[in-house]
Amino acid sequence: MSERTLKAIMSFDYSLNEDERGGIGAQTDIIGLDFLVRKNQSKFEPVLIEVNGHDCMINCQINEFINKDKIGEAAKELVNTMISRSERFLVKGKTVLFVGDGSYGKRFTLKDTRDYGIKIVLVNTEKPQNLSQDITFIPHDLTDLKRTYKNATEIIAKLQARGITIDGCITFWDENIRLAAAICEILNLAGSNYKACTIAKNKYLTFKWLQKRKGDIPHWPRTFLYSSNVYEINTQSDISKIFQNNKPSLPLVLKLEYGSSAVGVKLVQNEEECQQYYQQLSDLEMSGVGLCLGRSFILMDYLQGTEHDVDIIIYKRKLIAAFVSDNGPTRLPNFTETAALLPSILSDEKQNQLIVAAYQCCLEIGLESGVFNVEMIMSVTGPKLCEINARMGGIYLRDWIKFCYGVDIMFCALLISLGIEPHVKCKYSQTCLAGIMCLVSEHAHIFKDKQNMNLILAKHESKKIRYNQFLEKPLSEDKEEEPFSSIAVIEPDPITAKKSLIKLSEELGIKTDSYNVEQFLEFIPNKTQE
């Protein structure tokens, strides 16, 4: 009833003009309500008798004074709201250059940035359909990823020719990270530096860099502990040399050196299998997975343990916040994600180990300001790095973190691009999200059924599930498959979430003979462990 009352007052506020509300920015932020509780037949119900705004926190603060462990609770949310409003005030009217609109699954970034009151200048190879009229579009061919600085100077020249001044530059698309960093570097804007983004994009460079670093923070572990044996493959003949000269421990993981989305990642058991996969992947044609930067590969240790994403916010080397999620087992020999859980069920100690490792790895390669996604394995000997993505986590991660913790990592990335330190105050998560990935090859029948899709979207809108779609249509099947979408259940704990997701997967037809949902969720226990 309190929430409904405040919403009614806010709605009335919106109907008033500036003077009637009390001046610029005036609005109702906090109210105090007095209730009587009466019995109506067999039930008790509240009766609102007074609304006031002057003494609403007195009793709360008396309670805090008596119970010292509660000090600050009453004002905490009000202060967080004030800070959040200040951040929005600071960004309103600022102009940010977006380098590339990204894939279908990234289109929300344009809409939501506009909702924050930020003006957008979009540079892209092609003008997106139905682009909002208040977004300034600059056409520029971004497909040649090897001419980064040339592209950067040409884009800046186009901005200057139009008399456009930008306050920040950002991208949420993996292939454009280096270009955005180069523009920031030339214009002296906030953000990640070009060298760091180049190291992060090249998986071989990332591991080699971490292996040779002695550590900027003397009392912390050395980053070679998070690295693995890694071998670069530029030609097919390199494979035989690696197996003959280095005699690596088997199995190994074959990866595209500039790849993303786990496309082309294979578990190889021997040299013959490695040669076979190399030939198969050398002819791969897919957009958005780093092939424009080169078709070299790496071989690295197969890291055994549990897989996790660490989405981390850093501002001028300061750790602002980090969020750890868990990933289920993949369908080997492929490494496409199958299932995920947020918050993590790891102990606080292990989560902190992952966060420290991710933070150190970012700093050591030079990523000192931004929102980054670090993929890690928690092995029996501690955290091990899979890869660093020098941009905000993709797919469902932004939506899940916002839903669970009330933190918008996209807004944090925008703040940092404008040189503003984000204030992040995570609410205590009383929500657990467990999700399953859906593939075109397994689940196209579900997404081509309009009635089924209407049901899924209705559940999402009513906040019964979270549905995140990454591809526009379930039409084609590539040799190397990316997930089409993710469907997650919302429950108070992981065990209940696991049961609910299995049930939902059966109802929607996600669970099939060849897509074993129970197996993908085996990392979540079936009952509370003693």
From TrEMBL:
Keywords: ATP-binding, Nucleotide-binding. Residues 217-418 form the ATP-grasp domain. Pfam families: ATP-grasp_4, ATPgrasp_N. The keyword Cell inner membrane does not apply. GO terms for molecular function: ATP binding; ATP hydrolysis activity; carnosine synthase activity; metal ion binding. InterPro entries: ATP-grasp, BL00235/CARNS1_N, CARNS1. GO terms for biological process: carnosine biosynthetic process. This is ATP-grasp domain-containing protein.
